């Protein structure tokens, strides 16, 4: 009977691929997003929070002739609206919002958006089906000044959240230059063009020699498998190699190399000119190659974007799972896309934007020790006499009014050891104790738990007995003494609220 | 042909009952939630962000024998987890999280949560299917000190976001007192108890006389319909009336009245004692009846909660749709509930908490003029010469580095009128102009758009021609002059970043 009942209990578990975030995981992210938001705001971008649910039609996912829409989104059928789905990014909703509200929005429209998105994908380690995005886009500005501005803003964001100059680099490329390269190669077959694009995408992994092989006859990969090549003659492949390897320290040299790579191509010329303009605009604002560079080896996203493409890379080294050094890598990317709104209105509207990888950037800040250091738990006021709860509540009220994070122990106070264990679990820096004797004498005991933990580790028995981490002070000095201890440990004393 | 294509275009619209939030709608809410979060944090509450998607099983919504789960939630069938749904509040997920992670969480566990929830209900005017909640709960504390603490915290929250003392009142009641009342009435029939509870819920609307009628023979309502009564004799109904009308200015008097109403009932006695304890604990912390009162007329939620119940009401008057004065009313409510975790673990875990109505509180702050006043748009640097975009970008960079919100016009600069129209739409306080002559003379024109708009309304033609709202200053004085104008209009000058 009891067993039957038990089997009816629901499992206490998130669905697969979802997770919960606790304490500093939530507040660190909120603080980081707030700092980014302030930079976006200063650049004239306005907040937009679109609904989490969109019609499948608006998202651009189309129904197959089966009962459910295709994989990739979480979708269901609504009585009023047919198939609807959770947004899978913040760009598709932007296109819908812009098309819906275009008569009321300024043109150009600069907007930022931050929030969760959902992907109906097989979850894996560190790969979740709900995660945060943090985007800024400019809709309706054809000028590459909009792209340059976003690159500068991205640099400001990284420095504001705590990535110092020198530890990041924003790399800018242009899809039109690549189109020019494909043009001079004389590739007219779409399949072959696609194959070349896929190969370029592998440049990061296989390097120049690898790309040469893959554009030609093919390549034996590390696993021993033979990868078929695109089948170009070495001469024909040359512009791709020239394009990928044209990066130099000086923007002028890189741009000259790119001019060579695109030959007589008009679209290629346009692309190089755009990069020149971006470099000039950034220089005018004081953003030099120590922050933003023209770099033709940026290939990620070239298939998706239609003009300038940019990527923010963190250049400091970390140790990977196997203890090997590697660069931290990409934390943000974006570029120009021009056809998103056209789906709705029939009119092409130029747009450009950036998306910051929230979890990646948080991991980087943790890596740099910017967040996730010592977490100050609350001061815990213990309960020695359950009939005097009012006295203890008065103490926490005083501490809180002084801006100090504090709480009274609300569990069963019978076992004092449990109260100290609780304070330990809360990472409390300070415990306050007021028994009957203290009350009678008008004093309180204040335990410095951080110092206490250090002493417990290192001290001799004599030192331990001296209890130098516990202080008896007049009741009226409670706040001052707690503040003194917090201050000694460089913790927030509430002095600035 | 063209027509066919057009009909294939997706509608640019949110699903019914969903909406988008723009600019200050987003940032005002974020600022309010941040202020509340800081109070929660100071009280020792930790952040929790649970996943938006839960298994239907964990949410406690059960499948009927048809294809889809019942109304109320947005649900769909997942390949891995069966039926899953968007959370409809923040309390059900808390129960699941607590059951799942109880070995790692401190006990008691104080947590706060803020975020959207979703309801699959018919949308109506001002009624949306996605909205924000902002909760704080303490799990695992049986003591009413936990309830008292949450009431004090709620008062702090309201004052922190900008509701001054005197403009709100937190009213506290206790379900156990009501249970005592039902006990002394000798009601053993569950249907009759339920009918009495429903009647009590109408006290706010129909008043004492109305409740008397409804507990007795029945009542003719305003529409002329006759509402059947519960059928109690006048004597039998008396304890309910005594309970509902026992509130007095002094807590001691209210509590004495309640003692009379509950007679010999043990559970009633427990309830009154709890209210006494809450009143004493709040008094010890300095929260008097100007902020928190014992008020037996709080009936909302009495059916759901198991112990203390509280509600925050804003007492200032507003005009309703028809121009009549009325009190603003409730913005937050909560209480003690003890069976939520038991569903998962079989063990009863005491819990108490509060939920702040985010949209209601925002509306109240707007009503009080705390938010939604003059919005400062960005300074707009106009483009007089498209070849000198670098110069203009340099200006905005200087302004931004000084902490001033600024942007360069990124649309087609050909028509200068469009640029000023854009600045108008952006609610820009200042426009900056640098044509060829200005460039040659090393000066810029700075237009005070706020003053300009005033002059355009009031000025004579002569005054208008004098253009006293436009200043020519040396290029080097750009930031200083803009700051001076912003300062004259009490706008953020970026001086504090």
UniProtKB/TrEMBL annotation, chains A, B:
What reactions does this protein catalyze?
tRNA(His) + L-histidine + ATP = L-histidyl-tRNA(His) + AMP + diphosphate + H(+)
Give a single Pfam family match. tRNA-synt_His
Specify which residues bind L-histidine according to the UniProt entry for this protein.
89-91, 119, 133, 137, 300, 304-305
**Subcellular location, in the record's words?**
Cytoplasm
Q: EC annotation?
A: 6.1.1.21
One GO molecular function term? ATP binding
Coiled-coil intervals: none
Aminoacyl-transfer RNA synthetases class-II family profile domain location: 29-378
* Gene3D superfamilies assigned to the protein according to its UniProt record, in alphabetical order: Anticodon-binding domain (3.40.50.800), Bira Bifunctional Protein, Domain 2 (3.30.930.10)
> Where is it mostly found?
cytoplasm
- UniProt keyword annotations, A-Z: Aminoacyl-tRNA synthetase, ATP-binding, Cytoplasm, Ligase, Nucleotide-binding, Protein biosynthesis
- What is one Gene Ontology biological process annotated in the Swiss-Prot or TrEMBL record? histidyl-tRNA aminoacylation
**Among its keywords, does the record have Coiled coil?**
no
> What GO CC terms are in its UniProt record?
cytoplasm
- InterPro entries associated with the record: aa-tRNA-synth_II, aa-tRNA-synth_II/BPL/LPL, Anticodon-bd, Anticodon-bd_dom_sf, His-tRNA-ligase, HisRS-like_core, HisRS/HisZ, HisRS_anticodon
Q: Which CDD domains match?
A: HisRS-like_core, HisRS_anticodon
PANTHER family named among the record's database cross-references: HISTIDINE--TRNA LIGASE, HISTIDYL-TRNA SYNTHETASE
Describe, as the record does, how this protein assembles with itself and its partners: Homodimer.
| Family per record | Belongs to the class-II aminoacyl-tRNA synthetase family.
Q: What is this protein called?
A: Histidine--tRNA ligase
Name of the gene encoding the protein in the UniProt record: hisS
């Amino acid at each position: 009977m009891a067993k039957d009942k038990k089997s009816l209990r629901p499992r206490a578990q998130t669905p697969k691929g979802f997770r919960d975030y606790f304490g500093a995981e939530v507040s660190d992210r909120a603080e980081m997003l707030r700092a980014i938001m302030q930079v976006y705001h200063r650049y004239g971008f306005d907040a937009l929070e679109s609904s989490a649910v969109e019609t499948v039609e608006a998202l651009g996912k189309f129904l197959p002739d089966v009962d459910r829409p295709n994989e990739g989104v979480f979708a269901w059928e609504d009585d009023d609206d047919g198939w609807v789905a959770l947004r899978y990014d913040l760009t598709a909703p932007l296109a819908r919002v812009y098309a819906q509200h275009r008569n009321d929005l300024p043109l150009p429209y600069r907007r930022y958006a931050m929030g969760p998105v959902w992907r109906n994908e097989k979850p894996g380690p560190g790969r979740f089906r709900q995660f945060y995005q943090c985007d800024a886009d400019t809709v309706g500005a054809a000028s590459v000044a909009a792209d340059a501005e976003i690159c500068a803003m991205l640099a400001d964001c990284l420095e504001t959240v705590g990535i110092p100059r020198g530890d990041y680099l924003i790399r800018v490329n242009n899809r039109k230059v690549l189109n020019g390269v494909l043009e001079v190669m004389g590739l007219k077959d779409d399949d072959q063009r696609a194959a070349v694009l896929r190969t370029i995408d592998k440049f990061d992994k296989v390097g120049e020699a690898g790309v040469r092989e893959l554009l030609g006859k093919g390549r034996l990969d590390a696993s021993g498998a033979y990868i078929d090549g695109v089948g170009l003659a070495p001469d024909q492949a040359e512009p791709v190699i020239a394009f990928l390897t044209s990066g130099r320290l000086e923007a002028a040299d890189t741009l000259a190399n790119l001019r060579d790579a695109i030959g007589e191509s008009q679209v290629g010329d346009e692309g190089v000119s755009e990069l020149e303009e971006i470099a000039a605009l950034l220089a005018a604002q004081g953003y030099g190659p120590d922050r933003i560079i023209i770099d033709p080896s940026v290939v990620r996203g070239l298939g998706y974007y239609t003009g300038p493409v940019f990527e923010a890379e963190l250049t400091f080294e970390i140790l990977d799972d196997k203890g090997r050094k590697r660069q931290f890598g990409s934390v943000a990317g974006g570029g120009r896309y021009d056809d998103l709104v056209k789906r709705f209105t029939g009119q092409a509207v130029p747009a450009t934007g950036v998306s910051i990888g929230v979890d990646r950037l948080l991991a980087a800040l943790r890596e740099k020790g910017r967040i996730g250091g010592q977490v100050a738990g609350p001061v815990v006021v213990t309960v020695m006499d359950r009939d005097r709860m009012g006295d203890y509540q008065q103490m926490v009220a005083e501490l809180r009014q002084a801006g100090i994070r504090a709480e009274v122990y609300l569990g069963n106070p019978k076992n004092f050891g449990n109260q100290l264990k609780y304070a330990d679990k809360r990472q409390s820096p300070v415990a306050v104790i007021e028994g009957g004797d203290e009350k009678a004498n008008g004093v309180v005991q204040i335990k410095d738990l951080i110092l206490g933990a250090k002493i417990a580790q290192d001290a001799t028995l004599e030192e331990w007995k001296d209890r130098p981490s516990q202080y008896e002070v007049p009741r009226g000095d409670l706040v001052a003494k707690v503040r003194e201890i917090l201050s000694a440990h460089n913790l927030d004393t509430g002095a600035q609220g």
